[in-house]
């Protein structure tokens, strides 16, 4: 099973003082990237209190087939809107190197890096009583 949850606050710059017309154009570009991406359970792009935000969430029974496309979409949002920030958490129980670990992708200033998860890893015994391959 592949599980994913994430969010991005979309910004043109890290100053937080974005031109409204520029931000609208960037959101349109992110929306097109979502439309062109794979079929995910939840990808939601909306405005809240004048700020655009993107949310991801879902499960894939067949392991991490969606993982590369999901990470590409997350990364693409940062490329299109280089002031953006957010987190993407994934867990793939079929990943032989990380089957008992959540992986965290951190976006800061539009750049994505992979991090160790200190909150839910190891999955067993933190989240599940036991976990067997």
Automatic annotation (TrEMBL):
Domain of life: Bacteria
Record protein name field: Immunity protein 7
Organism for this UniProt entry: Amycolatopsis balhimycina DSM 5908
Name of a matching Pfam family: Imm7
